[in-house]
User: What shape does this take?
Amino acid sequence: MKRWLFIILSALCIQNACAQCGIENKAFQEGEFLAYDLYFNWKFVWLKVGSASMSTVKSTYQGQEAYRASLITRGNERLDGLFVMRDTLVSYTDMELAPLYHRKGAREGKRYYVDELWYTYPHNNCHVKMHAISSRGEHFWQEHEYKSCVYDMMSIFLRARNFSAEGMKVGDVIPMPITDASELKNSWLKYRGKESFTIEGTDDKFRCLVFSFIEHEDGQNNELIRFYVTDDLNHIPVRLDMFLSFGSAKAFLRTYQGVRSPLTSKIK
Assistant: This one.
């Protein structure tokens, strides 16, 4: 009897902690699919070097209802001559977007590595089990427990799409603690205001909210990505400017399907 009581109470704690780390989802629905063209700056010329796609479906994780979000990036032969890029990211969250599991398998240059994260929520804390496979095939395991919520790059992306910029001022920041299989990053979003953006090769013009994703490392604040998201309930990223160690890259939205709400940000 005591054993079953302990299990029931533990389950309630997990549910409560998940709720604290979640957020009401108004931005997307199952079946959403976004496709992007990737460009790289080479000797002052922007070259198309690959594609990316993101899909979200309803699934289950360890018996509970969940979202499964997948991000796939693929460089083409033109990029392969400079830098090979084959990334596949998969994340499971509960229906309130609290993270449950994350995996990144990445071939970047000559290096292939895997990061895995498992989230549990004992005693209203956030416990993360981490597994890293290095490019040399070495396995590294560690576990950490945090009093506040932490996220991975995919789950924080889903969460950030549900942030409201109403009442925000240019320069306002939103803390976004993100972890991979090695360490917790000190990172945040910075609000840059509103701009209009026309999707490359189309007449589709959108009113956008602009955010920078910034990470503090080695005593410096580094802007890693600048997002342009539609100024409506969907908050679809239509443009991403990426500041990489080997140059600058951009991603432009090419197609979208299964969008949840009307695109009221579209300028006619």
